[in-house]
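Narrative summary of target 7.
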Amino acid sequence: MHNSSQHQAGPEWSESPEDQPITTILFLCTGNSCRSQMAEGWARHFFDHKFTIYSAGIETHGLNPNAVLVMSESGIDISTQKSQHIDEFEEMSLDLIVTVCGHAHENCPVLFQESPVIHRGFPDPPKLAADESDAERKLGHYRDVRDMIKSYVETQLIVDLESAIK
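Modeled conformation, tokenized:
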């Protein structure tokens, strides 16, 4: 049964998974602790039935607890996701790499020359919240970025994927 409120992929994707190879998307940031984790959570929420979705970092910093908290406020549980290093995906065929921070985009490893890379930069919540003394104001920065990432994943990710595989 298809939910018409979810976004339709382009004509390249049929409703039957056995008709097509599995499409693999990787969200990449510096530490795989916040933005890429949020993007993975949203992508799994919207497209888990269509794509294999991962996130990784050029380094691994562990999950940011504020990212976990604000995602849970939206009903998305990322608490079991792992902070992974990009090297773990070295042997994998990736259909699209989405860099979500400038540092990752500038330093995307050359070992992924065969994979299309699209940069969609988002502000760094820990950096934005660093000067805030009020906990609620700190979380406000995380919520803002969470919502920006949700909007991107929900409305633009399919477009980026389609343009990357043409």
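Confidence is low (pLDDT under 50) at residues 1-17.
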